[in-house]
């Protein structure tokens, strides 16, 4: 299969039994994780059991906004419970920092002790022999509150400021500006104006947040098992906040049951566990969040308002965009990503895959008395793609141009690459039109249009076609940051590859997995780079004591950056093996090759040595080492792509609308993405399918709703609806494989699927019935109300 061949979901049938000589990359090798995961032997935080372990429960605020006027813990302490309040840790503060000039730095306490700023904020922690007794201990604690007026909606006038430092509740504001927007809009043939709002989401991984902390007083050392996406960042921050040398803090991310960005934050509960463990040396403390706590207190996302104006000429060419974007960032600026993570991403990527010279977008992050907003799969772009695609659909209607054609006239093409976007990000893809064409072909676009006309003539249930074209910025290097100006840049990752004396390889990688199959992918990369069998590579990840620095799992970065580090390290080890082997058999380095763990002389069909034999000399028989070669056989390298890699994507769907109920039924759904080189096709397709399912959930069902008092009305899965297998249609997943400029030619694929469904499903409803969707989710009730009009 050539790298520029488009393939669909049938490619997952690649022959797993093919000879190992072809290498493992590009093949659906058996995943290394599956043996333990499918047999119930996964190692999750919940599975950790240690001697003397105690369990923690948090008392949470029942108010959205209130002053704490008193806390009485005497009864709980007399009953034998260990109790911690905000006063115990008032000296430790989480301050997410940014160099953005407009940024207002605020403090998030470990446990609230003067004021609560959202319903669900942790106020008191109780420790007991098990979670049930800890919950009983919470009932013995009394906290007195003086309620304050809450602010729930970010685009309504604030009442009592959430933070004194920001009287208007605006924690940051920035304007992206290019060209001459006002003059161009004034001369445009058509100016489309819309105000759009998007719904608030929760991440809802299968495994909620969890942690186990234990303090070793003899060594002055903290060990923290945590279901985190960012173990090295977490270690750095915990050490800094607790005043510890970083080498005295070990963070372990074992198997993690999903993250989606929600677990890329250092939470007050995480820090509280570590601080309490230091106060109770030798006693492991465990906390596992329940689903109600997750919906209430884990980070939320996607609560945005877009005020959009877009100007087009008579031929449908996009001339200018003027946007005002407000993001509800909740009660606190999350650590370390700040309140800027969503608004800045929205402004930086709003123009998406479209050519645009005149652009003005003012973004702001506004604090409210709701749970903090943080990273969530697709960060801001499911909302910004919805906003931009809505403008194209509206302009197409006004101009009488086909919705597909207006997009074709405006997308960035390969001839435009590298294309500098109006936000100054550099797009290196340009294969958007190709993705769109292949998606329409898979949909059988002309046949669907014919069926649409037939149904209109017969009076049957109407159908509509929705489309979205998008770009996903992946693998951000240190020069490609599209988010907050934090004190650090998330650019590089490290990898160590060690050949053991028996010839097997141990890989210590800085990547972190939450179900993406990274043990498998890293093993594939290293096996092919070194020239050994995939089954002879063992990968260890997620432990800060084992691997050098890795920034973790976010921004679809690990295949690009962690994979690049693994590839480069594998090549370095391969070179060392060849140099040692050449000395042993008295051959030139250039005349040797490694294949399937055996060393060949070019032109000779029989191997002269095995990698195991070379490794034995490197370690056990060092007396045989050629002059100038030291013992050992390993290497460590870092990799930073400097910029990043854009992944192109297009999604199209056919939706049927029930006029009587307002329900939407997805008849067909197609996604075509350019992920560059697909290292494990089945994993790539799984990532795309999973992200589309999340996107469909957000478009049609998921919505966190607060009442006017700041109480969460959708606090259980009875009220917060999520899609099941019954609601997710069969997906057709296609590929345009255009290698990126990095060692493996890969583009990230973890988030792109979430970017399209909002726009696709809203556009399909418009196409079916002419109903404009200005507010998400596209619920049956909203559709029914529009139909009654």
Describe how the helices and strands are arranged.
Blueprint: H1 34-38, E1 54-60, E2 66-72, H2 74-78, E3 82-85, E4 93-94, E5 108-109, E6 115-116, E7 122-128, H3 131-138, E8 142-147, E9 170-178, H4 181-187, E10 190-197, E11 201-202, E12 210-216, E13 221-226, H5 231-242, E14 249-252, H6 268-279, E15 285-288, H7 291-297, E16 300-301, E17 304-312, E18 318-330, H8 341-349, E19 358-367, H9 381-399, H10 403-408, E20 419-420, E21 426-427, H11 432-443, H12 445-458, E22 463-474, E23 493-499, E24 505-509, H13 518-530, E25 537-540, H14 558-585, E26 592-595, E27 598-601, E28 609-610, H15 611-619, E29 634-639, E30 645-657, E31 664-673, H16 681-700, E32 731-735, H17 752-755, H18 757-769, H19 780-788
Parallel strand pairs: 1-15, 13-14, 18-19, 24-25, 31-32
Antiparallel strand pairs: 1-7, 2-6, 2-8, 3-7, 4-5, 9-19, 10-17, 11-16, 12-13, 12-15, 17-18, 20-21, 22-30, 23-24, 23-29, 26-27, 27-28, 30-31
Rg: 27 Å
* Major sheet attributes: 7 strands, mixed
Spatial strand order of the main sheet = 3-7-1-15-12-13-14
Helical stretch count? Answer: 19
Percent of residues in beta strands: 15-25%
Could you explain the architecture of this structure?
- This protein is α+β, with helices and mostly antiparallel strands and 789 residues long.
- It contains 19 helices and 32 strands.
- A hairpin with a 2-residue loop joins strand 26 and strand 27 (598-601).
- Helix 14 (558-585) packs across helix 15 and helix 16 packs across helix 18 (757-769).
- It is globular, with a radius of gyration of 27 Å.
- Mean pLDDT is 95; it is low at 1-21.
């Amino acid at each position: 299969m050539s790298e520029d061949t488009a393939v669909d979901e049938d490619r997952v049938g690649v022959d797993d039994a093919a000879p190992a000589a072809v290498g493992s990359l590009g093949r659906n090798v058996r995943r290394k994780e599956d043996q333990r995961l499918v047999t119930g032997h996964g190692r999750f935080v919940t599975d950790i059991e240690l001697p003397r372990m105690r369990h923690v429960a948090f008392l949470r605020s029942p108010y959205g906004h209130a002053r704490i006027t008193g806390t009485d813990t005497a009864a709980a302490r007399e009953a034998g419970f260990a109790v911690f309040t905000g006063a115990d840790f008032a000296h430790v503060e989480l301050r997410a920092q940014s160099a953005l000039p407009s940024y207002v730095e605020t403090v998030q306490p470990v446990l609230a002790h003067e004021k609560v700023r959202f319903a669900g904020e942790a106020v008191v922690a109780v420790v007991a022999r098990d979670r049930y007794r800890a919950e009983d201990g919470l009932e013995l604690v009394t906290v007195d509150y003086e309620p304050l007026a809450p602010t729930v909606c970010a685009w309504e006038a604030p009442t009592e400021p959430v933070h004194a430092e920001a009287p208007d509740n605006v924690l940051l504001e920035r304007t992206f500006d290019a060209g001459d927007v006002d003059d161009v809009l004034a001369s445009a043939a058509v100016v489309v104006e819309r105000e759009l709002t998007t719904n608030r989401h929760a991440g809802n991984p299968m495994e909620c947040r969890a942690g186990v902390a234990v303090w070793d007083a003899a060594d002055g050392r903290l060990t923290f098992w945590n279901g985190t996406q960012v173990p090295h960042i977490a270690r750095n921050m915990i050490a800094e906040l607790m005043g510890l040398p970083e080498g005295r803090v070990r963070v372990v991310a074992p198997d993690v049951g999903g993250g989606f960005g929600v677990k890329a934050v250092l939470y007050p509960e995480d820090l509280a566990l570590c601080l309490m463990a230091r106060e109770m040396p030798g006693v492991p403390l465990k906390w596992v969040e329940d689903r109600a706590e997750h919906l209430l207190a884990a980070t939320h996302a996607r609560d945005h308002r877009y005020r959009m104006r877009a100007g087009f000429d008579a031929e449908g060419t996009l001339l200018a965009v003027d946007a005002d974007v407000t993001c509800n960032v909740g009660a606190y600026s999350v650590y370390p990503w700040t309140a800027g993570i969503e608004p800045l991403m929205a402004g930086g990527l709003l123009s998406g895959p479209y050519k645009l010279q005149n652009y003005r977008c003012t973004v702001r992050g506004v604090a409210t008395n709701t749970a903090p907003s943080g990273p969530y799969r697709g960060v801001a772009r499911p909302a910004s793609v919805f906003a931009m695609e809505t403008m194209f659909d509206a302009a197409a209607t006004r101009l009488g141009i086909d919705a597909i054609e207006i997009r074709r006239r405006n997308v960035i093409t390969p001839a435009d690459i590298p294309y500098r976007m109006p936000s100054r990000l550099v797009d290196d893809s340009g294969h958007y039109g190709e993705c769109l064409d292949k998606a329409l072909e898979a949909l059988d676009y002309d046949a669907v249009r014919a069926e649409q006309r037939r149904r209109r003539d017969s009076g049957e249930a109407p159908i509509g076609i929705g489309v979205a074209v998008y770009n996903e910025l992946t693998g951000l290097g240190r020069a490609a940051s599209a988010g907050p100006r934090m004190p650090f840049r998330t650019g590089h990752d490290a990898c160590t590859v060690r050949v053991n004396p028996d010839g097997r390889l141990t890989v210590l990688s800085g990547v972190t997995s939450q179900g993406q199959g990274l043990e498998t992918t890293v093993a594939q990369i290293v096996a092919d780079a070194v020239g050994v069998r995939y089954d002879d590579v063992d990968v260890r990840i997620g432990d800060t004591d084992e691997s050098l620095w890795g920034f973790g799992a976010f921004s679809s970065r690990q295949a690009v950056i962690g994979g690049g580090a693994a590839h480069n390290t594998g090549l370095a080890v391969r070179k060392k093996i060849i140099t040692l082997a050449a000395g042993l058999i008295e051959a030139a380095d250039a005349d040797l090759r490694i294949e399937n763990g055996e060393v060949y002389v070019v032109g000779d069909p029989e191997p002269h040595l095995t990698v195991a034999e070379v490794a034995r000399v490197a370690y056990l028989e060092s007396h045989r080492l050629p002059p100038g070669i030291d013992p050992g056989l390993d290497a460590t390298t870092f990799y930073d792509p400097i910029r990043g890699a854009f992944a192109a994507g297009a999604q199209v769907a056919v939706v049927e609308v029930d006029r009587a109920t307002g329900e939407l039924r997805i008849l067909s759904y197609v996604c075509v993405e350019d992920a560059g080189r697909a290292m494990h096709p089945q994993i790539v397709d799984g990532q795309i399918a999973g992200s589309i399912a999340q996107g469909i959930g957000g478009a049609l069902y998921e919505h966190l709703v607060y009442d006017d008092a700041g109480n969460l009305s959708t606090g259980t899965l009875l009220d917060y609806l999520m899609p099941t297998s019954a609601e997710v249609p069969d997906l057709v997943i296609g590929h345009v494989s255009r290698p990126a400029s990095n060692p493996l030619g890969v583009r990230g694929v973890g988030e792109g699927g979430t970017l399209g469904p909002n726009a696709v499903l809203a556009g399909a409803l418009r196409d079916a019935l002419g109903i404009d969707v200005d507010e998400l989710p596209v619920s049956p009730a909203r559709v029914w109300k529009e139909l009654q009009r």
